[in-house]
């Protein structure tokens, strides 16, 4: 029996088009899973919903896989609903962009009232961040003064914008450069840049994490510690090697869109974690909470002590 066949397997599910999958592909391509004492079994799918949950979240909850990626607000909602999920490793500050047709009437956040704004769903962190920024900077809430259209998935949202049914859309970050490069659309704002307008402490903190069931850190702590080390190593290699980044993403870095996409990736992924960042995430969640909505409190235990690197 080979040494590789005796390693524990970690089953992970990701959207094929997301940068989480790029990190996972880099782990496998560079042998960083086996070097850290486990074998990564990667399942890639689309961004469709299973009922009220994203497909990857449903796979984790149904026990089909042990690991996915999600943001801290979704993790808090799951914990509050009684689902025992926990963050196992930091991913990055993952926010999208507001994109509008070039030459249209929407040129800044101040132009949002009365416009048709597309979003994935009402709990999407991009939408909550945009609403909070408009309240802070312009004194209005787009949920109250704009026509908000939930598409249900990022691919459907992209298609709705390209089909002319929207004045703007809150796209996921990796969709933006390719669309802008075609010349028909412009990025009104990068939502990650809106964080600079928020009265929260610096430096930038990871807002998305690799997430597992809370039983896994207890039953296989070495497995998750090995995974966390491999994620950190993969991010470092992808930051240092544009060629590797291009191979795992499938995006040529020599094009304008490829270079723009890599700049966005570099600004988002590979952020270090420190324990005090949990308090900063709570402050950000409080600022993003819509008026009158329940507070997105981070339940005890959702950020796994000893695992986040």
CATH class of the largest domain: Alpha Beta
What is the mean predicted local confidence, pLDDT? 88
CATH topology grouping of the largest domain:
D-Maltodextrin-Binding Protein, domain 2
* H-E order: EHHEEEHEHEEEHHEHEHEHEHHHHH
What fraction strand? 15-25%
Tally of helical segments = 14
What structural class do you assign from the helix and strand content?
alpha/beta
Strand order of the largest sheet: 9-8-10-7-11
Terminal-residue CA separation: 33 Å
Count of distinct strands: 12
List the domain count as a whole number: 2
- Helix share, percent: 40-55%
Query: What can be said about the biggest beta sheet?
Result: 5 strands, mixed
Q: What would you say the CATH architecture of the largest domain is?
A: 3-Layer(aba) Sandwich
Overall radius of gyration:
19 Å
Backbone shape? globular
């Amino acid at each position: 029996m080979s040494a590789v066949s005796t390693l524990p397997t970690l089953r992970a599910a990701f959207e094929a088009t997301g940068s989480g999958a790029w990190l996972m592909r880099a782990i496998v391509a560079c042998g960083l899973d086996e070097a850290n004492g486990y074998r990564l079994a990667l399942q890639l799918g689309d961004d469709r919903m299973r009922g009220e949950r994203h497909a990857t979240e449903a796979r984790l909850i149904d026990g089909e896989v042990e690991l996915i990626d999600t943001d801290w607000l979704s993790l808090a909602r799951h914990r509050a609903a009684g689902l025992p999920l926990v963050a196992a490793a930091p991913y990055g500050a993952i926010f999208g962009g507001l994109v509008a047709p070039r030459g249209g009437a929407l040129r800044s956040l101040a132009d949002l009232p009365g416009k048709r704004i597309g979003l994935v769903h009402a709990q999407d962190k991009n939408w909550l961040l945009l609403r909070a920024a408009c309240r802070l900077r312009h004194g209005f809430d787009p949920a109250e003064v704009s026509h908000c259209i939930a598409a249900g998935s990022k691919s459907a949202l992209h298609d709705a914008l390209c089909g002319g049914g929207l004045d703007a859309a809150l796209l996921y970050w990796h969709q933006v450069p390719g669309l802008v490069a075609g010349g028909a659309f412009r990025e009104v704002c990068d939502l990650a840049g809106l964080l600079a307008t928020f009265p929260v402490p610096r430096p930038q903190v990871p807002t998305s994490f690799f997430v597992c069931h809370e039983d896994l850190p207890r039953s296989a702590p070495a497995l998750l510690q090995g995974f966390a080390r491999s994620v950190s190593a993969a991010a470092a290699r992808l930051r240092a090697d544009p060629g590797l980044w291009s191979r795992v993403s499938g995006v040529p870095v020599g094009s304008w869109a490829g270079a723009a996409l890599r700049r966005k990736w570099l600004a988002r992924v590979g952020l270090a974690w420190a324990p005090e960042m949990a308090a900063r995430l709570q402050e950000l969640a409080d600022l993003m909470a819509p008026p009158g909505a329940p507070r997105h409190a981070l339940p005890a235990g959702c950020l796994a002590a000893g695992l986040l690197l």
